[in-house]
């Protein structure tokens, strides 16, 4: 209430001192949405305190589920707790944690991973806590929480015996912490306070006890506050008003410099906030195995950005070399989003996945305004330069192109079903498929990726994302179905069509106007009983091409419900072409009608009535 009064006084002072324009300037440059007041107080409305096990006096902002006499609670913004076998459990998107204590004085709740058992020193955590989940949560990691990383090494330090040893390190990991032959097994969290005063060389007994003690999450405390800014402006405005407020010329003398200073101040605060967001993410995300490098390390490994590999929408990629002699690709982000979400999204996504068909994030750099992502170097570049071959170049064989498409499909299927969170890429296209020295495909560029709970069949997006020509129609036409993993299926279908035909799907320079949009032309060919022909193709290659095109046509169906899952796509690609059912006639937009001869038939008519003599593979 007091803060609201101060805001009102400040508005009045601004109008009297600088004229009506100050009123609009105030609303433009003072972000009310970030003037946050702690909602957690000692009062808890009409809610009756509840208890479970050794956790007593459970009050706002927590509420014990199914506890009697809770219907009179007036505060809706609760974190629900559950009582299971006399243990209090905090359920969040990333797991169920045992509650050890709640402190309403410093707004913290201490939780323990249920995988840790006090008397079992071989027990390990069940979950990996990620800041990506906490980014949209009212629960945040506290400054007393520290990461703890488990290494597995091929040999012990200062020993030549080739055996496997495990090491544990408390705190953040840098490049110098990684010895030759070592890899990060997993990372979790613990409380610094539990190990306070102990020697740096902790025993495994100490580590296990620290994990059993748990770590603290903070609730209900605002991250940003401009109250101090408002107090400063209020004091300045009142003093200026008392001294000069009656004189109109003073408005001109002091008004414009004051407004300019306010503009500069707010601009700087916005940039500082962006860097703060990224730093908070990196300091708190303990599910990451990539190494953090300094900007000087980046300059050394790239020989001061000597060799440029390419340039994209978010920055430039340079070739680099680590101290071990390993080649890497360094992506310097030059045009980040205002709050650094592109960087956070890419690190949070690719830092948690490990798959044969995914590009590996080796490390990253955040230093002031400098941000970089370091990946494994792919010597054969991106897929686009092999699909659209120029004359005189050495194209990939049909068999190799098929193998690449199958690898990409397996990678996307892993993103959709192989992780603890459902990962939607939203930017599958040839440029984002990299090829290693053996032409094994690696999916890259997770700047547009989004993470969702595995059970979410429909996801929410604030705006369409992706690359034109590969974006699913439901991103634009809301009436054909919700956005889901089927958006990636559509993008893969467009990619697969280009791989099979060795040409762009949309080509305005083509001689025959009917072939400008290639997928529609191919669909019409199949519906007329004709097949797509490629010069000098063997019988085996013709079967491969036909299989890829039929699968692609299924993937790019207008309605998401008509498209197969990536698991079914893999089955179709691995199966026999004779067993594939032909897809419906391809529609380009929701208002398009089916041919008149199909109006009285099946609502989802097929192009061909060809008899299938084997177990038919369809998309459903």
Number of strands: 22
Give the rounded overall mean pLDDT. Answer: 74
Number of domains: 4
How do the strands of the widest beta sheet line up side by side? Answer: 3-4-5-6-7-12-8
Approximate helicity band: 25-40%
- The CATH superfamily of the largest domain is Transferase(Phosphotransferase) domain 1
Task: Give the CA-based shape.
Answer: globular
What Rg, in angstroms, do the CA atoms define?
A: 30 Å
| CATH topology call of the largest domain | Transferase(Phosphotransferase), domain 1
Unreliable segments of 5+ consecutive residues: 24-45, 221-236, 238-248, 278-288, 593-606, 608-616
Number of helices: 14
CATH-scheme architecture of the largest domain: Orthogonal Bundle
Query: What class do helices, strands and sheet pairing give?
Result: alpha+beta
Commentary on this structure:
With 620 residues, this protein is an alpha+beta fold. The chain has four domains: 98 residues, no CATH class; 170 residues, no CATH class; 86 residues, 2-Layer Sandwich (Phosphorylase Kinase, domain 1); 215 residues, Transferase(Phosphotransferase), domain 1. Helix content is 30%, strand content 19%. It has 14 helices and 22 strands. It has a seven-stranded mixed beta sheet, with helices on one face. Strands 13-17-18-16-15-14 form a six-stranded mixed beta sheet, sandwiched between helices. Strand 15 and strand 16 form a beta hairpin. Helix 10 runs antiparallel to helix 11, helix 10 runs antiparallel to helix 14 and helix 11 runs antiparallel to helix 13. It is a single-pass type I membrane protein. GO terms for molecular function: ATP binding; polysaccharide binding; protein serine/threonine kinase activity. It holds the Pfam family Pkinase.
């Amino acid at each position: 209430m007091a803060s609201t009064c101060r805001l009102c006084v400040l508005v009045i002072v601004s109008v009297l001192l600088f004229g009506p324009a100050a009123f609009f300037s105030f609303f433009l440059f003072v972000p009310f949405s970030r003037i946050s007041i702690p909602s957690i107080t000692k009062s808890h409305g009409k809610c009756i305190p509840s208890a479970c096990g050794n956790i007593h006096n459970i009050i706002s902002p927590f509420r014990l589920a199914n506890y009697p006499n809770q219907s009179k609670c007036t505060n809706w913004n609760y974190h629900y707790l559950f009582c299971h076998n006399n243990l209090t459990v905090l359920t969040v998107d990333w797991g169920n944690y045992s509650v050890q204590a709640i402190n309403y004085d410093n707004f913290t709740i201490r939780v323990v991973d249920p995988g840790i058992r006090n008397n079992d020193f071989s027990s390990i955590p069940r979950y990996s806590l990620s800041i990506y989940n906490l980014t949209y949560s009212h629960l945040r990691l506290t400054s007393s929480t520290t990461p703890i990383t488990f290494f597995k090494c091929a040999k012990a330090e200062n020993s030549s015996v080739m055996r496997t040893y495990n090491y544990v390190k408390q705190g953040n990991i840098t490049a110098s912490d990684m010895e030759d032959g070592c890899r990060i097994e997993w990372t979790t969290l613990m409380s610094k306070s539990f190990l306070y005063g102990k020697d740096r060389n902790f025993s495994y007994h100490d580590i296990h006890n620290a994990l059993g003690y748990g770590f603290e999450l903070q609730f209900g405390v605002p991250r940003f506050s401009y109250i101090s800014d408002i107090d400063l402006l209020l004091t300045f405005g009142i003093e200026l008003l008392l001294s000069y407020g009656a004189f109109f010329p003073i408005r001109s003398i002091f008004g414009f410099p004051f407004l300019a200073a306010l503009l500069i101040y707010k601009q700087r605060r916005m940039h500082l906030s962006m860097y703060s967001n990224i730093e908070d993410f990196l300091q708190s995300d303990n599910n990451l195995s990539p190494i953090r490098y300094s900007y000087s390390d980046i300059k050394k490994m790239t020989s001061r950005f000597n060799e440029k590999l390419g340039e994209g929408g978010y920055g430039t990629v340079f070739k680099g070399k680590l101290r071990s002699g390993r080649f890497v690709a360094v992506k310097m982000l030059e045009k980040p989003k205002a709050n650094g979400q592109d960087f956070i999204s890419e690190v949070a996504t690719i830092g948690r996945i490990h798959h044969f068909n995914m590009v590996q994030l080796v490390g990253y750099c955040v230093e002031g305004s400098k941000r970089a992502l370091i990946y494994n170097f792919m010597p054969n570049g991106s897929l686009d330069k092999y699909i659209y071959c120029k004359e005189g170049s050495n194209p990939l064989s049909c068999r190799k192109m098929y193998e690449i498409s199958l690898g990409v499909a397996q990678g996307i299927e892993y993103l959709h079903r192989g992780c603890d969170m459902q990962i939607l890429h939203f930017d599958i296209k040839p440029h984002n498929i990299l090829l290693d020295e053996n032409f094994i495909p690696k999916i890259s560029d997770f700047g547009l990726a989004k993470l969702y709970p595995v059970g979410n069949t429909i996801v929410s997006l604030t705006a369409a994302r992706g690359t034109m020509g590969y974006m699913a129609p439901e991103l634009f036409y809301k009436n054909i179905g919700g956005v889901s993993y089927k958006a990636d299926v559509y993008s893969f279908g467009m990619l697969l069509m280009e791989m099979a035909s060795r040409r762009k799907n949309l080509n305005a320079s083509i001689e025959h106007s009917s072939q400008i949009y290639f997928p529609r032309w191919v669909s019409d060919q199949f519906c007329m009983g004709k097949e797509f022909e490629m010069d000098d193709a063997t019988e085996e290659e013709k079967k491969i091409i036909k299989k890829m095109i039929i699968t692609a046509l299924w993937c790019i169906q207008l309605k998401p419900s008509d498209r197969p899952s990536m698991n079914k796509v893999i089955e179709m690609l691995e199966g026999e072409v004779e067993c594939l059912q032909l897809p419906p006639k391809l529609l380009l937009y929701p208002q398009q009608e089916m041919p008149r001869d199909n109006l009285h038939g099946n609502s989802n008519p097929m192009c061909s009535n060809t008899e299938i003599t084997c177990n038919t593979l369809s998309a459903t």
